[in-house]
Structure formats: C-alpha cells, structure tokens
Amino acid sequence: MRIDWTAFSPWPALAGGVLIGIAAAMFALLNGRIAGISGVLGGLFRPVAGDIGWRIAFLLGLIGAPLVYRLFATLPRIRVDAGYVALIAAGLLVGLGTRYGSGCTSGHGVCGLSRLSPRSFAATAAFMGAGFATVFLIRHLLRL
Amino acid sequence: MPLVASLLAGLVFGLGLLISGMADPAKVIGFLDLAGLWDPSLAFVMAGAVAVGLAAFAFAGKRTVSVLGEPMQLPTARRIDRRLIGGGVLFGIGWGIAGFCPGPALTALGMGEPQAFVFVLAMLAGMGLFEWLERPRTGRVIDGIIRP
After folding, report:
1. Is the CB of A124 inside 8 Å of chain B's CB atoms?
2. Interchain proximity A113–B2, CB inside 8 Å
3. Which residues of chain A lie closer than 8 angstroms to B94, CB-CB?
4. Are B21 and B42 in contact (CB under 8 A)?
5. How far does B132 lie from chain A, in Å, by closest CA?
6. Cβ neighbours of residue A49 closer than 8 Å, sequence gap 6 or more
7. Pairwise CB contact (< 8 Å): B66 & A94
8. Does A19 contact B16 at a Cβ distance shorter than 8 Å?
9. Prediction pTM value
10. How many Cβ atoms from other residues are within 10 Å of residue B117's Cβ?
C-alpha cells in the first residue's frame, strides 16, 4: 500500500468530520431525527402532511452550504472524473441502493456507527466493501 | 423553531462536507482506491464525525423528546437481511463509480456543478424506481383507482 502524501489532508478532514458530527448531533438533539441524507430525501417520495417541511429545510441547508461558504472563503475545487453515462448509472445505483439499504454514508455511516447499531455496522461494511471493490475493478482490472 | 434547527443542521452538515473534502469525488475515489496511491483522509472525516456522534447519541438515546420538544424518532430496526446488505452493495457500487454519495452530491449541486446535477437527477430516478418497485400491490387497479 502506498500513501498519497500530497493529497493527504488529515486536519481539514478531521475538522470537517467534527462539523458533520455536530450537525448530526444538532439534528438528533433538537429535531429528534437521524441526519441520514438518503432517508430525508427519500421520504419526500411518499409525502405525509406535517412530515415535509423539516425535510425541505434540511436539504436547503445542505444545498445552500456552498453559498454560505463562499461568503467567507473561496470554494474548494472539486473534480469529477466519471463521464455522463457513468454518472447516470452511478446515480441510479445510489438512489436505488440507499433506499433498499435504508441509508447511506450519513445515516448508517455517521449516525449508525455513533449509535453503535449492529445493523448500521453491517450496512457500512457492505457499501464500503462494494466501494473498494468497484474502484479496484474500474482502476486496476478494467483500467478505465 | 424545529424548521430553523433543521435548516441549520443541513447547513453545518454541508459546510462539514466542503471543509473535509467529502464533496470532492476525486478525493473520495482516492480514499476508495486502496491498491493505487491511497489517500486516507476520509477515515479522519469519519473519525471526527463519529467522535462527536458517540457522545451526542449516548445522550439522545436516553431522551423521549428532543430539546425542542419534538418526539425522538431514532431508528428501532435491528434486522440484518438481504435488503440491507444488497442495498448497501448497490449503493457502494454506485459510490465507487462516481465518487458521489447523496449528501456530497447535493452540496456539489449547490456549487453549480453540472455533473452533480446529472448525478442527482439519476439518484432521484433511482429512488423513484424503488418507490415504484415497492408500491403496494395488494389492490387491483379499476378505472385508474387502486381498490382493495
């Protein structure tokens, strides 16, 4: 295993992680809910009266974060290597998989692991394992 | 008040994604690429988030109403079954292909990235497909109305 020392950024990663933890803590303690993005978004597909506003508010905060960030600093540049066909396939899989699996990196990963939930440990192992395997397949076996 | 708290939680979450590097698919793929030049940064994101989360959920788990008086709606499901693992695997494959998971994709959408827009549309379609596949099947459709 070779470490990419030029890309390695432990301090911003840790600081951003703490913020994500604080957001999940706020949502649990103030709203009594799990900050699981796929669940918050997916719940809008079967709207129930009184169960819509908080979802929209949370998602607006998430989508609006770059606008607030830009008031204080230059937005980090991001890079997407996947082409549009790959993005569509990936999006479909992520949408379908997170709903069948009842959660994603935030709901199972951050919140579930914090709750010491065996179910979330299993789900996190499944999607992390599949993520590692997929990148290995694409980058090292298929060499796309 | 709960709506404001919800908005703020989403905002802080998004800022965390931006600062940590999670919103950058290339960095996510760098983390998932164990066999290449590996960037372990995202393990630190998880460590930071879970360190705070452990304390918060230990406290939240004992409460029946939130600080704002909302009912606590933490998950109670415990079953580890094919749906959970199969869903996780499908999600992981998609995550590995593009480097986007749902939260970062929405934040990247807010950055105005066209690729995030395409990904999010496809993700919504995937969620819609789930709703369609899992639609209630007990009734019969007569004249366009589902009757039990």
Report:
1. yes
2. no
3. 89-94, 97
4. yes
5. 10
6. none
7. no
8. yes
9. 0.94
10. 14
CB contact under 8 A, A133 and B55: no
Judge whether A25 is closer than 8 Å to chain B, CB to CB.
Answer: yes
When pLDDT is cut at 50, 70 and 90, the band that residue A135 belongs to is: very high
CA atoms within 13 A on the CB side of A108: 32
pLDDT class of B29 with cuts at 50, 70, 90: very high
Instruction: For chain B, say whether A52 makes contact (Cβ under 8 Å).
Output: no
Tokens of A101: 């699996």
Q: Which two tokens stand for residue A123?
A: 């789900």
Tell me whether residues A78 and B108 touch, CB distance under 8 A. Answer: yes
| Residue from the list A31, A95, A111 with its beta carbon closest to the beta carbon of B66 | A31
Residues 6+ apart with CB under 8 A from A117: A108, B75, B78
Confidence band for A144, pLDDT divided at 50, 70 and 90: confident
pLDDT digits (tens, 9 = 90+) for A77-100: 999 999 999 999 999 999 999 999
Report residue A106: phi and psi, to 5°.
-85, -50
Instruction: Give which of B116, B134, B105 is closest to A101, Cα–Cα.
Output: B134
CA distance B136 to chain A (A): 12
Please list, in sequence order, all residues whose beta carbon lies within 8 angstroms of the beta carbon of residue B15, skipping any fewer than 6 positions away: A16, A19, A65, A68, A69
Cβ within 8 Å of residue A95, ≥6 positions away: A38, B122, B123, B124, B125, B126, B127, B128, B129, B130
Reported as a single tens digit per residue, the pLDDT across B42-79 is: 999 999 999 999 999 999 988 989 999 898 999 988 89
Structure ipTM: 0.96
